[in-house]
Specification:
The protein is of the alpha/beta class. It folds into three domains: 157 residues, P-loop containing nucleotide triphosphate hydrolases (Rossmann fold, 3-Layer(aba) Sandwich), CATH 3.40.50.300; 178 residues, P-loop containing nucleotide triphosphate hydrolases (Rossmann fold), CATH 3.40.50.300; 87 residues, K homology (KH) domain (GMP Synthetase, Chain A, domain 3), CATH 3.30.300.20. It is built from 14 helices and 15 strands. It starts with a strand and ends in a 9-residue tail after the last strand. This is GTPase Der.
């Protein structure tokens, strides 16, 4: 499992700036995800080959007793409880404050690995800047600049070195795919799990938010083994009030990360919402195989069915690689085709791609449509090989590949997906440019 790193500190110490740098985006992946306060964001971070979940919390005041500050503090408390490690951020420009001391006192009681990060230290003497923060009793302060990236890589290497690297599940074929059931509250996720396994293993009734934790349910159907992961529903911001329920979204994100295949459950009786798109976007970002189950199909008329299909085409075009199934979890309709789609998506995600065929397809694609020139040079793609599975990763070698535009990457992805008939899984393309030994002599 990818470690969960939580950024904690008083307001305006640079938590969001570090978050954006770690997730490599200026717009948080799920900034408007359900159950989040205005300053709560989370996403996937990557340093070199290591990935992790990173959580940006609101300004933390552990002694607040009322008002919005108290509500924000409760959310930070839940984030601390869920964290694998805490990054306590302070401001080098403002120095040590009583507010920092209050937070440090709370974090010392948390029992989580805590790293003291002195931000905004660019252009300053690190030894001098960090000296006063030793008084917080949280170990050696680490000076960085989240805005400029100074020392951020070294910080993350230190944070991540105590967590084991993710390893491929060698027993996946024997145990079958791990299937996460995700979606908004009350769309029928738990009912779907109960229908699949044929018994009431998961509580299911018409009260949104029944499920709080991700629940794993191993089962066998038609001689095939699966592990289902029923997750808490992801809600629209402002509709959830209990702190533990608000932060159950982290459980869902972790369930997606642990899954081989994700089943995104939509409600045919409701409009496709921004939250549905956010969940689908996170699944794509995580690189997981996907099946979309439009539930409660039996409860809507033909007009509504046509409307929901048009809604899907308009709002979820980026999920075009996935198979859409129209089901009734309550009546068991469409369940067999859905499981076949899960099997197909899993097979596509774990498929092995032969290097000679990949290279032929790459050369055919470039002959059909060449990559655009950049600064007078056209990228040259020579050969390709597989670099990983779940999702399939194709590594393309050549020269001048650093400036291949995103539109051409999508063209290559479509070409490979269609050629290998990989329905149900996203695909990643990585470029590796060869070094020019004469570059320094020009």
């Amino acid at each position: 499992m990818k470690p969960t790193l939580v950024l904690v500190g008083r307001p305006n110490v640079g938590k969001s700036t570090l978050f954006n740098r770690l997730t490599k985006t200026r717009d948080a992946l799920v900034a408007d995800f359900p159950g989040l306060t205005r300053d709560r964001r989370y996403g996937l971070g990557r340093v070199a080959e290591r990935e992790f979940l990173v959580v940006d919390t609101a300004g933390f005041d552990p002694v607040a007793k009322e008002g919005i500050v108290h509500e924000m503090a409760k959310q930070a408390e839940q984030a601390i409880a869920e964290a694998d490690a805490l990054l306590f951020m302070v401001d080098a420009r403002n120095g040590l404050t009583p507010h920092d001391e209050q937070i440090a006192a709370r974090l010392r009681r948390a029992g989580r690995p805590t790293f003291l990060v002195v931000n905004k230290a660019e252009g300053m003497n690190r030894a001098v800047v960090s000296a006063e923060f030793h008084a917080l009793g949280l170990g050696d302060p680490l000076c960085i600049s989240s805005a400029h990236g100074d020392n951020v890589h070294a910080l993350m290497e230190l944070v991540l070195e105590s967590f084991p690297a993710d390893e491929d599940d060698d027993e996946a074929d024997e145990k079958g795919p791990r299937v996460a059931i995700v979606g908004r509250p009350n769309v029928g996720k738990s009912t779907l799990v109960n229908t699949l396994i044929g018994e009431e293993r998961v509580i299911a009734f018409d009260m949104p938010g029944t499920t709080r934790d991700a629940i794993e349910v191993p089962f066998e159907r038609n001689g095939k083994h699966y592990t289902l992961i029923d997750t808490a529903g992801l809600r629209r911001r402002g509709k959830v009030f209990e702190a533990v329920e608000k932060f159950s979204v982290i459980k869902t994100l972790q369930a997606v990360e642990q899954a081989n295949v994700v089943v995104l459950v939509l409600d045919a009786s409701q409009e496709i919402s921004d939250q549905d798109a956010h969940i689908g976007g996170f699944v794509v970002e995580a690189g997981r195989a996907l099946v979309v189950a439009v539930n409660k199909w039996d409860s809507v008329d033909d007009y509504r069915r046509q409307r929901i299909k048009e809604d899907i085409e308009r709002k979820l075009p980026f999920l075009g690689f996935a198979k859409f199934l129209y089901v009734s979890a309550l009546k068991g309709q469409g369940i067999v085709p859905m499981l076949k789609a899960v099997d197909g998506a899993y097979a596509a995600a774990m498929t092995k791609l032969a290097t000679p065929k990949l290279t032929r397809l790459l050369l055919d694609a470039t002959l059909k449509q060449q990559p655009p020139r950049h600064s007078g040079f056209r990228p040259k793609m020579r050969y390709a090989h597989q670099g990983g599975m779940n999702p399939p990763i194709i590594v393309v070698h050549g020269s001048a590949l650093d400036h291949v535009p995103a539109s051409y990457v999508r063209y290559l992805e479509r070409s490979f997906l269609e050629a290998f008939k990989l329905q149900g899984t996203p695909l990643r393309i990585q470029f590796k440019s060869s070094h020019n030994p004469f570059a320094s002599k020009v």
